[in-house]
Amino acid sequence: MATKEQTLATERRTKTILSVVLAIICVIYCLPVVAVVINSFKGNTFVKTETFALPNEQSFVGFDNFIKGMTFGNYPFANSVLYSAIITVLSTALILIFCSMAAWYIARVDSIFCKIVYFLCVFSMVVPFQMVMFTLSKTADTLKLNTPWTIPIVYLGFGAGLAIFMFVGFVKSIPLEIEEAAAIDGCGPVRTFFEVVLPMLKPTLISVGILEIMWVWNDYLLPVLVLDINKYRTIPIHIQYLKGSYGTVDLGATMALILLSIIPVIIFYLACQKHIIKGVAAGAVKG
Q: Model's pTM, two decimal places?
């Protein structure tokens, strides 16, 4: 039989090997981001010929790529940032408010209708977007959902599946006695939800909010299908239009704008990543 010291040594070796493997995987995942950073400061020709080389005296162009990307064409980059921010904030707010309320009702009301709604929401997570995108585009045009102020309704439909799945799991872990005590004290359903249930949903609210923000901010396909891109362009659409004559693309300017678009999301994710772990553990695992 192995001694205690041998067991501990084996565990240490296993942890060391696992740490090395995970570190290598982390480096591989970070390589595309590193490539974007170094190429955003290089000239267009050098991006094509020396993709993974660090900028040198010949290839380094400073912030010229950023200026060129933000001033390219006749559509202001500031408008793209504004529309992306409006769509992201409104979509996330709608998803958090309506999905948390729906999840609370589904978790607390034991009926066939609630079970059907829940399974439909979960099923929507596995339906490929490509199956419904053309019908969705036509429907959005018919219902006038093709503006930055109305497209969040479309995002609400697509984001409800994951949000309700996570919220329902967390609500089931909340003792029902807390809500019964609030009802005895005179709280109605609305007041019970906003003053009792919603504060306890904070870990899952933050987790779902982070995931939805990252999705909506970086989304390209849905806005390009629904919005009038001559009037409203989000940041991904603006980057797509960095083309010159004969379809040539300035890769340096493209990399610069990609870097500008991912920096807010990376900072936001790093600041809130602990809440993602808490939310997933508290919501999707329980119940």
A: 0.84
pLDDT digits (tens, 9 = 90+) for 136-170: 888 888 888 889 999 999 999 888 888 999 899 88
Coil/strand/helix, residue 60: strand
Comparing CA positions, the residue from 155, 13, 21, 27 lying closest to residue 88 is 155
Residue type (1 letter), 213: I
Residues recorded for the chain: 287
Tell me: the pLDDT tens digits for 90-141? 999 999 999 999 999 999 888 899 999 999 888 888 888 888 888 888 888 8
Phi (first) and psi of residue 42, to 5 degrees = -115, 155
| Spatial CB neighbours of 214, under 8 Å, sequence gap ≥ 6 | 265, 268, 269
Alpha carbon distance 276, 282 (integer Å):
10
**Tokens 């020709």 -> residue:** 45
Pair 135, 169: CB distance under 8 Å: no
Give Cβ neighbours of residue 69 (< 8 Å, ≥ 6 apart): 77, 239, 242, 250, 253, 254, 256, 257, 260
The domain limits of the chain are: 88-233+265-283
Q: Is the domain covering 88-233+265-283 a CATH 1.10.3720.10 domain?
A: yes
